[in-house]
Structure to design on (204 residues):
């Protein structure tokens, strides 16, 4: 397949598809962190170049519910609308098979209801990061808690919370995915998820 990995500078998903024999290219406003096929620029410049599959990672800064405390600050509404519009342009792209991934946020159901919720530890990376997938002409990713007659275990051990807020006057809260606050690191796809996408969707 000819695969476009939109809004990816890490090269993780791109390289997973290349390893499975596909003609894959990443695209982002930033340069790629790994040597490989990469278009540095606006993904809309190349969206019509005959792709069979697109894996898209639209920016989530103004869509994610993690930032809801800042929802009504000046300027946020327009930025949220711009982010939703970009998400919609990717979702409506003239590409047969599409996967968009984002954390929990207002793109569902505003643009379309998400298809599947996954965690990195479902696919071998012992981390929490609740991720939604929007899938068009693609099946949900298969994962298994244990070996069965039909499936091989893909889950690693469930991670422990990073910290717990159990102060008085507050309901106990568990923080699970704050190993780093660096937005560039947090935006990267976990290798296990990238491999699951490449291996499972290569069979279509």
């Amino acid at each position: 397949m000819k695969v476009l990995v939109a809004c990816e500078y890490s090269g993780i998903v791109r390289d997973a598809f290349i390893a499975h024999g596909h003609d894959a290219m990443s695209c982002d406003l930033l340069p790629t962190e790994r040597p490989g096929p990469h278009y540095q620029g606006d993904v809309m410049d190349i969206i019509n170049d005959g792709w069979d599959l697109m894996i898209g990672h639209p920016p989530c800064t103004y869509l994610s519910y993690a930032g809801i405390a800042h929802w009504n600050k000046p300027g946020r509404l327009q930025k949220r609308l711009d982010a939703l519009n970009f998400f919609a342009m990717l979702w409506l792209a003239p590409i047969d098979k599409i996967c968009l991934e984002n954390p929990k946020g207002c793109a569902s159901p505003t643009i379309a209801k998400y298809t599947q919720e996954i965690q990195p530890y479902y696919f071998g990376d012992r981390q929490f990061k609740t991720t939604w997938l929007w899938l068009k002409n693609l099946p949900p990713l298969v994962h298994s808690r244990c070996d069965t007659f039909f499936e091989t275990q893909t889950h690693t051990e469930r991670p422990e919370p990073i910290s717990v807020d159990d102060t008085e006057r507050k309901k106990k809260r568990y923080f699970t995915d704050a190993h780093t606050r660096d937005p560039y690191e947090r935006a990267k796809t976990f290798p296990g998820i990238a491999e699951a996408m490449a291996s499972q969707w290569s069979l279509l």
The longest strand covers residues 23-28. The first helix runs from residue 12 to 19.
